[in-house]
Amino acid sequence: MQANAEKRPDPFSTLREQFGYESFRFPQEEVISRTLAGGHSLLILPTGGGKSICFQIPALLWAQDAHVDQPPPLTVVLSPLVSLMKDQVDRLTSRGIDATFINSSLDRQQRESRYQALRDGQYCLLYVTPERFRKPDFVQALLTRSIKLLAIDEAHCISAWGHDFRPDYSGVGQLRELMGQPTTICLTATATPDVQRDILKQIGLEGFSDELSKCQLFHQGIERPNLSLDVQEVWGTDEKLASILQVVKQWNQQSAVSSSTRPSGIVYFTLIKTLEEFSRLLENQGVDHLCYHGDLDRNQRKRIQDRFMRGDVALVLATHAFGMGIDKEDIRYVIHADVPGSLESYYQEIGRAGRDGLPSQCLLLYDQHDLATQMQFLQWSNPDADFDCRAYNLMAQEAQAIQAFGVEWLHKQLCDRQRHDRRLDTVLAIFQRYGLIEDEHDLSELSIQLPLPDTLADANERQEKLIRDQRKLYALVEYVQSDDRRQFLRDYFGTHAQHEKET
């Protein structure tokens, strides 16, 4: 549809008419202007800071400006989270925006229908996971279109130095080439200077500059002035429970005085068994709550998340599986009942509090005994190269036995009957991410066709990964002990100099 020459669409009118906002937040306007001019950007904004506006508005403007006889330029959004895509696309389509997603949640007929619509020139925004590029029929449909912009959400997943590295993300540089090296915007809430540099290296845009041919860093900093960053040293279950009850009671009393709605809160736990223990203790105290963790099936998790988002129940006890897609503005408190594994994880999780800008509390309950649990987790999440090789060889040579007897049989062969050893869980997840297996939870059709990636067989590289993760945990301990926690976060994420300049 050719725009009227006298009234061409612009970022401000699109912001107001499509999204209902009267003004941009910093640095949305600057990022959008650069993107429209064809410049690349790395955007680091706190959770809830409005990152998606920075690629959605350019996509809309290009679509509105397209000639009536030609399909609109396409913006491809890479996201690691299948669970979020539908929600994001539903919001866009409810505003009349021609967007879609293609991922493993669709059946074959739905996927083929969207492939055809893509070829026919529909959609200005397409959400996919990097894994989708393994499918030749998807790639063929995609390359029939002119791709104007590549938006890489959760860009820290690109870097092996990051806290949530995903192997398929490490191939984004090749995907950019496949798409004709479109303008690229990388978006994340957490990236240390090392991770920032590695992101650019992996996508082929090394070095920061304001030149359009290079990448410009837009870093709002990690400032959330409405969040109180509190740490309380505790000893054991009783003191943790007392602290949790105190926070819940204080916020409930405050809402009763102000006649406001019941405040929402999240309490994070590392272990499911600890979560369930505290659930029983809170039930005994008459505290209504929900429980969310990875052992629940997908439908249960969806129902629990929906009830929390609607406000049916104000408190949820959760493992770290809960959070992505929790775009609830009025969460008044986030409590870490256990020490998290890294500052990156901690910062992402507290970022779910106070998105409406009102005062909110972030409380970390620091029990030194939790460090032993996290150290054990680090060992489990970083199997050495020998374990990787043994797992790969066993799965390649004993596929029929594994198909018949399942993951438990494989676990016994590899872990000397140590029931609580989680290294195999990690290896199966990694093998799925590298495309060695189809489903980490179902090995009934196991067939290893690809060689073991060199990075998993390299003893030095695997050891370096463990050391990096241990340093992240040590940094969190330093944060707890710091006299100025906000300054510590600025230093850790490399934001203090720019923050002072912007202020």
Give the SSE layout.
Elements: H1 11-19, H2 28-36, E1 40-44, H3 53-64, E2 74-78, H4 82-94, E3 99-102, H5 108-119, E4 125-128, H6 136-142, E5 147-152, H7 172-178, E6 183-188, H8 193-203, E7 215-219, E8 227-233, H9 236-258, E9 264-268, H10 272-284, E10 290-292, H11 298-310, E11 315-318, E12 331-336, H12 343-350, E13 360-366, H13 369-380, H14 385-397, H15 399-415, H16 423-433, H17 454-457, H18 459-481, H19 485-493, H20 496-502
Parallel strand pairs: 1-6, 1-7, 2-4, 2-5, 3-4, 5-6, 8-13, 9-11, 9-12, 10-11, 12-13
Give the name of the CATH architecture of the largest domain: 3-Layer(aba) Sandwich
CATH topology of the largest domain: Rossmann fold
Helical fraction equals 40-55%
What gyration radius follows from the Cα positions, in whole Å?
24 Å
Q: Report the principal-axis shape.
A: globular
Q: Work out the helix count.
A: 20
CATH superfamily of the largest domain: P-loop containing nucleotide triphosphate hydrolases
Oligomer type: single chain
Our measurement of the CA-to-CA distance between the termini, rounded to an integer number of angstroms, reads 42 Å
Kindly state the mean pLDDT as a whole number? 87
Low-confidence regions: 1-5, 496-503
Instruction: Give the total of domains.
Output: 3
Global structural class: alpha/beta
Q: Give the number of DSSP strands.
A: 13
Percent strand = 5-15%
Q: Can you list the strand order of the major beta sheet?
A: 3-4-2-5-6-1-7
The biggest sheet amounts to: 7 strands, parallel
